[in-house]
């Protein structure tokens, strides 16, 4: 392990519709650490620190590697903060609607559904699941799927996320209900 301090570079981030910076950030610092230590955005969780559990997932609304436009999930515990320069980022703090004082006045449909269906237990993994479900719903709004594909699509979207309490069933049931109950996400939907 090196005892040489990392070199710092200026970094400006665009998070939840606001610009932060320029900040003097070590070149090897991960985004989750910048969110917590520099910006006070602690909703994104540091879980495994290896990108496996995905509690640290943030949403990036940029062009994806395949050329299509985001949103996409990015694991902030293994992705350096400087990678996000110029990219619009959404953290879990961005989902609820707030009033001018910054107080939450309405949860997002995903957040409300998770509460209504008692989807989480300890809640540590919840920000990652909220972001995954949000990305899924936004993608389906652009490219609806057949009703027969809903279960497999939800499984594919949520499967990479780990819940230490093993509370997967309610997350999956809730997102499936959201997909089926949100107009325009399923082809041939009469809603």
Automatic annotation (TrEMBL):
Limits of the 2Fe-2S ferredoxin-type domain: 9-95
Highest taxon above the source species: Bacteria
A Pfam family it matches: Fer2_2
SUPFAM superfamilies associated with the record: 2Fe-2S ferredoxin-like, CO dehydrogenase ISP C-domain like
Protein name from the UniProt record: (2Fe-2S)-binding protein
